[in-house]
Write a structure and sequence with these properties.
The protein is α+β, with helices and mostly antiparallel strands. It has two domains: about 160 residues, Butyryl-CoA Dehydrogenase, subunit A, domain 3; about 130 residues, Nuclear Transport Factor 2, Chain: A. The protein has 13 helices and six strands. α6 runs antiparallel to α7 and α6 crosses α8. About 40% of the residues are buried.
Length: about 325
Amino acid sequence: MLLSSREVDLFERSRGRLEAIAYRLLGSASDAEDAVQDTFLRWQAADREHIETPEAWLTKALTNVCLNQLASARARRESYVGQWLPEPVLAGDRMLGPAETVEQRESVSIAVLILMERLSANERVVYVLREAFGYSHAEIAQNLEITESNCQQIYRRAKQHVATDRVRAEVDAAAAGKIVEEFLAATLSGDTEPLIKLLTGDAVSVADGGGRVPARSTPIIGAIGIARVLRGLWKPSVVKRFIDGRSFAVYAAAVNGSPAVLAVLDDRVVAVVSLEVTTDVHIAAVHIQANPDKLERLTRQWATSERGEPLVKDW
């Protein structure tokens, strides 16, 4: 059934919102793009004359697509090589969605996207639609074809699973740049003590190479262990083994609302190190994403973004 220009425009006006919902549900920008495209095909095939509220219809259609994808994603995660981390997204990308409230900003952080992996598919849908997009329980219940009271119970359960006792700091661009500079200087100092001072005692470091790039297969827990490993790994001579001996540039950036270090080789982002910062300005988590499959969109965004001078021009 052919779409009119009005119907195409209506979908395109909804695309950013749909992408932002799908990204939070799936933890993958590429999978979110696929989910939105599948939703467009369903919109194209629908009997649109009988759809009273297109925005609600599109949200429900997207939710169903994502529920199917979540089922297959869990199966893929079981055979995933090493640690799994969500796909990072650069500041300014519409995939991040609304950011007016603390809850909206939190819901797209790397830390919360990891915690949401604990949730069932329905819990994830309820949590995302309620916490990040302000849908009512009645609207969400209709999407999932459950009762409103059941929806409320699912939401309470999801909140408990995602809850953390650590308060994450929100930092502006200047503060984020300073944190990245301090982290990089401490890592490259050749001494573990400066890095230990920056980290919380129970800090966690997780690296995702996806079997494409060498990465530690288990998390590192504790400031001392993280400092020792990073001191050894971040030597230019060691890093260059993984990129054919070539030099790369290092930039400060913001990823999923957190300060981050970007390693860039020939205008291609080859690694993202995002830092979860506490209110007392210590680093509670170091998330290293080096799987090239999860850096394609970020690389495209980086190519067109405004960037400052590199912290290290020729590593």
